[in-house]
């Protein structure tokens, strides 16, 4: 309106005739540009509102993710503690069983060694008594003392029982160790080395053999003395010389039982 009043009130020749058209075209472009700017401003405002709501949603999602993660961690820790608690008691019982098994093996070895020592001492006393009784006179009726044979029989019986007891204890310990290794392998995927238990239970035959060396020497001495007394009891034969007495003792005396060998 102001432009139109200016153009209409202007003196003739002051404003060129095509200026009105240019001004109108400029006004139309300005109005179009203003409408475009208004639309873009509205779009920016809507985008800003959407970005605000999107930020809120992102924050809510992050909170949910943190809560879910903490919940999963708590559940996993609880399950692991429960599984460890469920496995710990059987493992502890197995360890206690292995300790008791090893202690039983040690006690059995000690008892067998003590029994073998007592039997060896009894064999020595019997041999000494037999030797002292035979030196005072001749044996009558060709009778032989039965004490060493009974002692040897008891010795063989006790040795067999001790070896069977130790073998049974070792078999039980091996079976329990294998079972424990299977459980640990199933739980953790690896089996611990079981050499400690085997090394602790490997000395039984050596201990038995060491305990049997002394009774064997006593038994051999008793057999030699018995053979010498047999030679003195025959009146029609002359007393044998030292070499003949040794040969007669080696031939007449029965071979003593192998106290350190396997099997009774």
Number of strands: 0
* Strand percentage: under 5%
The helix/strand order is HHHHHH
Distance between the termini: 138 Å
Q: Approximately how much helix is present in the residues?
A: over 70%
Rg, Cα atoms, Å? 55 Å
- The count of helical stretches stands at 6
Oligomeric grouping of the chains: single chain
Apparent shape: rod-shaped
Region (Disordered): 123-148, 193-264
Biased composition (Low complexity): 123-132, 201-220, 243-257
Structure write-up:
Residues 123-132, 201-220, 243-257 have a biased composition (Low complexity). Residues 123-148, 193-264 are annotated as: Disordered. The radius of gyration is 55 Å and the shape is rod-shaped. It is 81% helix and 0% strand. Helix 3 (147-188) runs antiparallel to helix 5 (204-233). It starts with a helix and ends in a 12-residue tail after the last helix. The longest helix has 117 residues, at 19-135. It is mostly helical.
């Amino acid at each position: 309106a102001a432009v139109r009043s200016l153009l209409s009130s202007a003196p003739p020749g002051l404003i060129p005739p095509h200026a009105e058209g240019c001004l109108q075209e400029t006004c139309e472009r300005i109005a179009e540009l203003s409408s475009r700017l208004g639309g873009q401003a509205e779009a920016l405002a809507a985008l800003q509102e959407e970005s605000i709501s999107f930020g809120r949603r992102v924050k809510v999602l992050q909170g949910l993710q943190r809560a879910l993660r903490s919940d999963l961690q708590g559940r996993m820790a609880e399950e692991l503690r429960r599984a460890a608690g469920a496995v710990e008691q059987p493992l502890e019982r197995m360890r206690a069983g292995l300790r008791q098994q090893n202690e039983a093996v040690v006690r059995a070895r000690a008892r067998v060694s003590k029994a073998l020592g007592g039997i060896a001492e009894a064999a020595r006393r019997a041999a000494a008594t037999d030797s002292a009784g035979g030196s005072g006179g001749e044996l009558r009726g060709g009778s032989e003392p039965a004490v060493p044979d009974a002692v040897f029989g008891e010795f063989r019986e006790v040795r067999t029982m001790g070896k069977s007891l130790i073998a049974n204890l070792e078999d039980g310990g091996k079976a329990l160790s294998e079972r424990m290794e299977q459980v640990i392998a199933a739980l953790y995927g690896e089996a611990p080395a079981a050499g400690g238990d085997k090394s602790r239970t490997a000395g039984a035959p050596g201990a038995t053999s060491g305990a049997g060396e002394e009774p064997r020497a006593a038994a051999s001495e008793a057999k030699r003395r018995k053979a010498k007394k047999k030679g003195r009891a025959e009146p029609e034969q002359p007393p044998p010389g030292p070499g003949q007495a040794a040969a007669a003792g080696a031939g007449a005396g029965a071979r003593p039982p192998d106290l350190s060998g396997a099997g009774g």
